[in-house]
Structures are given as C-alpha cells and as structure tokens.
TrEMBL record:
The record marks Y142, K190 as: Important for catalysis. It comes from the Bacteria. This is 3-isopropylmalate dehydrogenase. Mg(2+) binds at D223, D247, D251.
Length: 361
C-alpha cells in the first residue's frame, strides 16, 4: 500500500522513550494495513548541542526535508537550562517551525471516558469534552521585535505583531476543521486592550462570514475563556487563537484530560513535512526509568496518519486502541487511580500496539 518516510527526532529526557513507543505503534499500523513506514533518527535539542554544538544541525534539517513527516519527542533539561545562554535546546524546535513555516499548531483535547476520574475537576464538567485548539505558531510575542535594554538590563520589551495574512491563513485552517466537526468556531483574543487582537478579531470575522457562513462563530476574551475552559469545557469545539494565548490555554487544558502526558499535537504548514509531538516536556526527573506516559506521543502518531498521510482509518485504529487499553485498566503512573494496572512506558506502548494488531484478526 503506502510508503512513508518519517524523520524521528527523539530529543532529550523522556523523548527517546516516548518516540520509541510511537514508532512501535506505527509499525503495528503498517503490519495491519499493509503500509511501509521508513524511520530515520536525527539529533535535536540538548542532545544535538552536546554532539555538534547546534540545537538543529544541518544534517537534521536535511533529513527532515527528505521526509514526509517529523516525529519529535521533547527538548531541554537542567543541563541546558540557562535562559541567557546563546545556544539553547528550544532553538532547535523554533528552527524547525521557521524552516518549514509551520504556522498552525493543532492540539486536540479529548477526555477519554475511562479517565474522567483522573482530573481534579468534577465528572459532570469534563465528561464529553472533545475540543481542538488551533494555535498560530509563527507570529506574535514569540517572534516579534524584542530587546533587553538599559545599562543593567533593567528594561525589556517583546512585541505582539501580526499581519492580516498571518491571521487569515490560520483562521481559514481552523474554520475548515470546524466545518468537519460540530461547526462551532471560537476565536480567543484580548481585543479590549491589544491592537493586535483587534486586528485578529476583525480579520477572523471577515474570513468566517465571507468563506464559512455555515459556522457558528463566537469571540471570547482570553481571560474569560481561561475561566470558561474550566467551568464548561464541553461547550467548545474548535478554538483558534494567537501564539502565546494558545501556549498557555492548552497547558491549562491538560488538566481536563487528566495529564499532560495524554495530549498530542500537530504543527502544519502549507506543504510537508508536518511536525508531530506530544505536548509535554522532557521530564528529566523520570527519564530512563520507564515511567513516562507514551500516549501523547502515540496519539501524535495518529495525528500524523490523519494530517500528513490522509490515513483516516489508520488514525482511528490508533485512537480506538488507546481507548480500549484505558478501558481495560492500563495506566501509567501519571493517570493511575485505585482499580487499575500500573504499567511502564514500554508496557503501555506494547499493549496499544498489540491491540491494533489483535483487532485485525
């Protein structure tokens, strides 16, 4: 059937452990559906700094260019934790986003029925939550003009800067995704204070009203949305927002799913390769101990199947296997409760892979 080339960038901390399980699951998908996945590992982040002096070596960038998709683990750790250092692990990730113009970050947040008890929120609040954040990824405060000034560095500024074109393309993508779901689109901004947000709101309104009149569009201020996300998260479907707001809100949303270890993401541009990675960080305190939750990485592989390769049935097979294994009581430590079987990273990945293969028989 299909043949797909995947660049695997394990990175730092628990990155190598969780990407190994995502690869295991993709291999199971290949065996079940008759696809060939060709994996090529490369360095990024702190591991790349140690080996080459660069967080994104030219060899890694070239490997990604010759791939259909990129699977990333995590970058960073205490060893490279000086924010004033000229070379830092996160520059590798930012470099990938810039090199491939990955302007949209998709972060689905789904509460699996088996995990409604894993969140500190009430069951009636989280049951049925299935929302999709679309975060603009290459503009805003993280990429605008900045400076640390003054004789002793006592003054600094960062600039939230957006153009009509940047807003249009991410809103268009979010609207297309909303059209394939429940036809609800929520745009989050701070238009009562920020000029960039007023442009964001005006352009969003124009694009949706002109091109997607079948959608229900609402605008919500970011501070109000942060409250609504905890009080009534099931009311939302697709949420589109700018870079920094999206970064903060999706971390908040991890509480809904029970653990940040459950959340996948996809970073997409106008053309391949897309970047697929779990939302969590490198978690150096548990690295190498077979304790990390690989489900975020495994569900990122499902997003790869869906958005990079257009393999919807295969993506659903992965998601259904994850749900079945959770229903069977398998848990990593971060999502464990009373009546469950606590397993390690490798055991969770193997159980999901075997479920995919078992369902084929």
């Amino acid at each position: 059937m299909g043949r797909f080339v995947i660049a695997v960038l394990p990175g730092d901390g628990i990155g190598p452990e969780v990407t190994a399980e995502a690869v295991r699951v993709l291999e199971a998908v290949g065996r079940r559906f008759g696809h060939t996945f060709e994996f090529h590992e490369a360095l990024i982040g702190g591991a790349a700094i140690d080996a080459t002096g660069s967080p994104l070596p030219p060899e890694t960038l070239e490997r990604c260019r010759r791939s259909d998709a990129i699977l990333l683990g995590a970058v960073g750790g205490p060893k490279w934790d000086d924010p004033t250092a000229p070379v830092r692990p996160e520059q590798g990730l930012l470099g990938l986003r810039k090199a491939f113009d990955l302007f949209a970050n998709l972060r689905p947040v789904r509460v699996f029925p088996a995990l409604v008890g894993a969140t500190p929120l009430k069951e009636r609040v989280v049951r049925g939550v299935d929302l999709l954040f679309v975060r603009e990824l290459t503009g805003g405060l993280y990429f605008g003009p900045r400076q640390e000034a003054g004789p002793d560095g006592e003054e600094a500024y960062d600039t939230m800067r957006y153009t009509r074109w940047e807003i249009e393309r991410v809103v268009r993508l979010a609207a297309r995704l909303a059209r394939g779901r429940r036809k609800q689109l929520t745009s989050v901004d701070k238009a009562n204070v920020l000029a960039a947000s007023r442009l964001w709101r005006r352009v969003t309104e124009e694009v949706v009203r002109r091109e997607f009149p079948d959608l229900a569009l609402e605008h919500v201020l970011v501070d109000a949305f942060a409250m609504h996300l905890i009080r009534r998260p099931a009311a939302f479907d697709v949420v589109v927002t700018e870079n920094m707001f999206g970064d903060i809100l999706t971390d908040e949303a991890s509480v809904l799913a029970g653990s940040m270890g459950m959340l996948p993401s996809a970073s997409l541009g106008e053309s391949p390769p897309g970047l697929f990675e779990p939302v969590h960080g490198s978690a150096p305190d548990i690295a190498g101990r077979n304790l990390a939750n690989p489900i975020g990485a495994i569900l990122s592989a499902a997003l790869m199947l869906r958005y990079a390769f257009s393999l919807e049935a295969e993506a659903r097979a992965v998601e259904q296997a994850v749900e079945a294994i959770l229903e069977a009581g398998y848990r990593t430590r971060d999502i464990a409760d009373g009546e469950t079987c606590i397993v390690g990273t490798r055991e969770m990945g193997e159980a999901i892979a075997q479920r995919i293969l078992h369902c084929a028989s």
